[in-house]
Amino acid sequence: MKNSFGQNVTVTVFGESHGAGVGAVLDGMPAGIPVDEAFIKHQLSLRRPSGDISTPRVEADNYIIYSGVLGGFTTGTPICVVVPNENTNSKDYAADRFIVRPSHADFVAFKKYNGFEDYRGGGHFSGRVTAGVVAVGAVAISALKQKGIKIGTHISKCAGVDDAAFANYETEIDALNNMSFAVLDNAKGEQMKEKILSAKAECDSVGGVLETAVLGLPVGVGEPWFDTLEGMLSHALFSIPAVKGVEFGLGFGIADLMGSQANDELEVKNGEIITKTNNNGGINGGISNGMPVVLRCAVKPTPTIAKPQSTVNFSTNENTVLQSLGRHDPCIVHRARVVVDSMVAITLCDALTAKFGTDWWQK
Amino acid sequence: MKNSFGQNVTVTVFGESHGAGVGAVLDGMPAGIPVDEAFIKHQLSLRRPSGDISTPRVEADNYIIYSGVLGGFTTGTPICVVVPNENTNSKDYAADRFIVRPSHADFVAFKKYNGFEDYRGGGHFSGRVTAGVVAVGAVAISALKQKGIKIGTHISKCAGVDDAAFANYETEIDALNNMSFAVLDNAKGEQMKEKILSAKAECDSVGGVLETAVLGLPVGVGEPWFDTLEGMLSHALFSIPAVKGVEFGLGFGIADLMGSQANDELEVKNGEIITKTNNNGGINGGISNGMPVVLRCAVKPTPTIAKPQSTVNFSTNENTVLQSLGRHDPCIVHRARVVVDSMVAITLCDALTAKFGTDWWQK
Amino acid sequence: MKNSFGQNVTVTVFGESHGAGVGAVLDGMPAGIPVDEAFIKHQLSLRRPSGDISTPRVEADNYIIYSGVLGGFTTGTPICVVVPNENTNSKDYAADRFIVRPSHADFVAFKKYNGFEDYRGGGHFSGRVTAGVVAVGAVAISALKQKGIKIGTHISKCAGVDDAAFANYETEIDALNNMSFAVLDNAKGEQMKEKILSAKAECDSVGGVLETAVLGLPVGVGEPWFDTLEGMLSHALFSIPAVKGVEFGLGFGIADLMGSQANDELEVKNGEIITKTNNNGGINGGISNGMPVVLRCAVKPTPTIAKPQSTVNFSTNENTVLQSLGRHDPCIVHRARVVVDSMVAITLCDALTAKFGTDWWQK
Amino acid sequence: MKNSFGQNVTVTVFGESHGAGVGAVLDGMPAGIPVDEAFIKHQLSLRRPSGDISTPRVEADNYIIYSGVLGGFTTGTPICVVVPNENTNSKDYAADRFIVRPSHADFVAFKKYNGFEDYRGGGHFSGRVTAGVVAVGAVAISALKQKGIKIGTHISKCAGVDDAAFANYETEIDALNNMSFAVLDNAKGEQMKEKILSAKAECDSVGGVLETAVLGLPVGVGEPWFDTLEGMLSHALFSIPAVKGVEFGLGFGIADLMGSQANDELEVKNGEIITKTNNNGGINGGISNGMPVVLRCAVKPTPTIAKPQSTVNFSTNENTVLQSLGRHDPCIVHRARVVVDSMVAITLCDALTAKFGTDWWQK
To answer: Which secondary structure element, helix H or strand E, spans residue D341, and what is its range?
Structure first.
């Protein structure tokens, strides 16, 4: 499997930026999960560019559900959703196709696919492909919701500005899921947006860190080796274009602590065993321990910038300079958020099904 | 698959800390790869505890190759290596089995396996299981060497002490692979060891960061979605007990840069296309770009410490205090190094086989 | 994975008989394979009902290639083809949904999917879903052709009438691939059609056996255990609705022979090692031996018949009688032929890629 | 994955006929399944050669459980069982290594593994490798037993002699599982043995057909596409050396019937929905329907015979004659029986876990 992921619940992505459409097949979901089209539209809207801080290429994202849904519920068979491409720019991509856009996949795609790759607008490497993932991810999120599991992500850092930390997961996650620019502290969010606009004005771009929390995951999900929760989640998350790091709990920060500081001591509280801290991010030995699962993704600054950059033309093997004057995002961190949520949801549906079976969801 | 990983090259791990043995099956490796038993022993020695900075439990690691090797070469069929356990402590683990060791997998294992887990010494969650991975990983490393691909890892940080950065990959990697405490700057290494001994004296432990570089990987390895090089490598690396973060290139550091700072500009040098910087760690769009692949793993401090810790007894559901006076490591960062190398090697063999086929290795 | 198959080359099917469409995603195919739309249409025409011996439901099969193809060649990324459903009968399937059609999947689908299954016209279990497989299978067949590998299938038996045996694979395969009712002996084909029409007149149906030969497969494809050629091919072929047996070489017939009769003796002919007979169907130890791969699929008679049948209503748990007066096929053997070819082609692309790699196809 | 099979429950085989040992890793089995060593020994005894009708190479099959079992129960982690080879003949296999034994894998192995294959006694292609499968298969059979599912196989045909048909599954399965030569009609069994001895006297060998029935499988196991019960089972069964055909229900026999004869009509009996016949072998649309699952495997005559056979020497590329005077079986049908049972059990554990989850087994 290359563009597919998961064992019990499997997602397959397809599509190119300027082809007929992008989409995904989500298979292995149980029958009877409500498919709320308003929710799918809401999720797609969170991914869609909006306003000054995004690219002016805005697609309506009118999707087609080709299979797996009947009368508003999943049927138990594969769910194929296609999002046709509508606003494909008429720009002649062929002219520039041999000039590498730094930190993009142009060169590796050319080499890997021997010149047959769809080079228009990044082709299959485009962030546009994530629209399919978000569409089917909405179904995964709905399934988790029925089991009392919820996911929320905030922009923990953007353009060097830190957001507040989670203080109350329950209420904050609900709020985040209704925000197009998901921060815990709105003042910080405004500062981030200003920095994004400054970068844009300077023909530059910015990156950031997304922090995700999962509530309600039962104890015992994940495996000791290979299909650890961390391994499965990171595998999925590194597919999101621009993600260059994934960490759980304190992540890289834990490396600087002493064991006595890092360890999560336990206590019995209201009859339940909990940890006093959550430095391990809800996962021990690869397996959920009942505490919130907390993870962070590093998102690099959008590689496409209007500033001139040194690069090469690989048809002539000569040095050249590139200035990308087309439509692009000065920041994709806020748009990547819902893709992270979708990926996490799909991966957890897979891991839960391994433990509890497909039939469990129908109870 | 749970305790198996990989598609074209697959590794399966088995074993418990105090069972009959630990081991691994490596399948999909081509026939004709030299199996150098001295090299396997060398690799196992790098994992083995040694001296003051490690646990006093030292195993001879006398392994048995049950299959897949004939006359010093791989046969092309599954290679099963078992490392029998010899020095299993007579300590009565049963006495303490319901007292959770903080940040260990005891509690999740009990819940997941319903009380049937092998609880002795961490069972299947023990770092001891990595011995099998290291043994078969030696074969993967040998295969890569034949194709001009080499892997080296140094302790980039330990107990808060930073090692030097890579300056010359070629020579430094060779040196690292012969060091039991792998650092680029020996003076820094001495400082790290002192800190480890201090931690030990304080009944505490320390963590660190391992940085790995891969040289010689051809352009075009990895897939755009899901089986990205980052996704596959992180999936494997998070199986190593204590790893809580994985990043590529600048990793989390890239989130703070502007696009113009983060992007790897290109140039033609000696007729070849290279990037001037390597902030993306040799990977664009999930695919190798011909530059060194650079990644880092955050390793948490050893959870087992001799300091008293608050915890619970989950058979009585009561709070209690645990003081682990047994054999344990004040630091496992240096021992985890060869496990990282092994995992990276196995994963790259898998990714290379996807692109080039099994037969390619035999040419 | 449930509705996906293959490792290096993976096919994912989706769709229901009366939903928006059916389709398939073919992933892992190399870049640069010619995508000949006339050939895709030809292949779909072989699957389409035609004339008296088929169902009157005829779809135009106007397909949409959503991804993975640019300028008439594969790009190396997933190929999604959707065949929208157009001629969906207005018949009220809801009325009869609880009356089990004998030997169909109605009852198991209801139980498995808890009443949420798409029950209209067999839903996901309908033979209509094979249209997607045939569309993407055409690409796999084209890829094999470039490597000198060809596949042909004839109706070895239908309604009790035996076709002639293969006498000259090369020329016969070419002829078969242009016939809508694929037989080696046309007189036998006419007898089969007469029997089909008789069955239809009697409100009944017939089955048969399809025999497939593959020429040009190199020695060494397939694995000794599990991913044997036989195992992989049979796994794929049993997905075709109505297939109840798969055999290779002499198949069940070999069980009655002595070893000295069954063994394929070898000889050197024109400098090449060949077997004098091909009782093992080109496969030893799960691996291709260079002789033609020969396999047969048993296809049961179409379960939907107009004769009254005893059955049950599972909403009332009462016995009842069903007479299926709708549109159906008195025989699907001839239509299943191209589905077999497609499945075999996709499976061989997968097995070849394991051995030779993705890049091999581009040479 | 090559020598591994299954998704939720995975079996990995390793070993060669004349290496240190053969074995298997069974992963994904739930914790708490009783591991009855007497039963493992019993199962291994059914596979072991015995008496005149088998090879004189008899191994004690003293196995080692390296992992995954504690105190007589599975722990939930991978179960590795090794069966060391003891009675490896001192015969110099090297002398004959280039002379192809007809219908064996010698030639394909040489080509596939480039001369590095373990050629001694068939190496990894030897039936000896099935000992590992039988050992871990015993655990799978025990797990199924706890859920009321039982498997039985009889020699439906051997050397042209037909056994009686199943008349009472419940009692007959129990009896078969205690017979070393598993037939329903002992008189027929004696005729088969006579024919085997005749073949042996003539330096020849015989084949046969094994028929398997599974009782107690719940409705709804298996998937509509690809992971159909038929597809999964056949995939596993074709790994058993010598199996050349797999069919379900009436199998190839169904091809000759009319739909009205082949269809399984339904009725309500004692409040339950059952089919009056079981021509589909308990499977509709790839999914279990609650009736006994019935399948048959064609087993070819042992290829190794003492009669002279024409063959080639592939080091000299010359024709030659081979007469195999070593130790071999005139028939392996009766020994293959327990391998079929083991494979079916492992595959069903996998399919059941997909539907019900790992935790279900612990209830």
So the answer is: helix D333-356
State yes or no: pLDDT of B1 exceeds 90: no
How do residues B241-288 score in pLDDT, each as one tens digit?
Answer: 999 999 999 999 999 999 999 999 999 999 999 999 999 999 999 999
**B69: pLDDT strictly greater than 70:** yes
Contacting partners of chain C (3+ CB pairs under 8 A): A, B, D
**Of B355, C68, B228, B225, the residue nearest A118 (C-alpha):** C68
Task: Give the residue numbers spanning the domain of B37.
Answer: 4-362
Residue C358 and residue B355: Cβ atoms within 8 Å? yes
Query: Which residues, including other chains, have CB under 8 Å from residue C107's CB and lie 6 or more apart?
Result: C100, C314, D219, D266, D273, D284, D289
pLDDT tier at C352, thresholds 50, 70, 90 = very high
Report the complex ipTM. Answer: 0.97
- Residue in D1, B345, B283 with CA at minimum distance from that of residue A239: B283
Q: Using CB atoms, pick whichever of B10, B112, B116 lies closest to residue D73.
A: B116
Say how far apart CA C156 and CA A149 lie, in whole Å.
Answer: 55
Q: pLDDT, tens digit, for every residue of B176-205?
A: 999 999 999 999 999 999 999 999 999 999
Phi, psi of C342 (to 5 degrees): -65, -45
Q: What is the CATH number of the domain that holds D187?
A: 3.60.150.10
What subunits make at least 3 CB pairs under 8 angstroms with B? A, C, D
What mean pLDDT do residues B127-149 have?
97
**Cβ within 8 Å, pair A359-D357:** yes
CB B311 within 8 A of CB A266: yes
| Number of domains, chain B | 1
pLDDT tens-place string over residues C316-326: 999 999 987 77
**Following DSSP, what letter does each residue of A126-191 receive, concatenated?**
SGGGHHHHHHHHHHHHHHHHHTT-EEEEEEEEETTEEPPPPS-HHHHHHHHTT-SS--SSHHHHHH
pLDDT per position as a tens digit, C32-51: 999 999 999 999 999 998 77
Task: Determine whether the interchain pair A252/B209 forms a contact, defined as Cβ–Cβ distance below 8 Å.
Answer: yes
Confidence tier at C89 by pLDDT (50, 70, 90): low
Q: Is the pLDDT of residue C56 over 90?
A: no
DSSP codes joined into one string, D154-171: EEEEETTEEPPPPS-HHH
Whether the per-residue pLDDT at C91 is higher than 70: the answer is no
Which candidate, A75, A83, A108, A66, places its Cα nearest to that of A15? A83
- Residues in chain A with CB shorter than 8 Å from the CB of C113 are 31-32, 75-77
Q: Exposed/middle/buried for C157, CB within 10 Å: 0-12, 13-18, 19+?
A: buried
Question: pLDDT of B285-313, one tens digit each?
Answer: 999 999 999 999 999 999 999 999 999 99
Looking at the complex, report in whole angstroms how far the Cα of residue B8 sits from the nearest Cα belonging to chain C: 7
How far CA A184 is from CA of A253, C60, D141, D149, D322, in Å, comes to 21, 54, 54, 54, 80
Which phi-psi region, left, alpha or beta, contains residue B103 (left: φ > 0; alpha: ψ -120 to 50)?
left
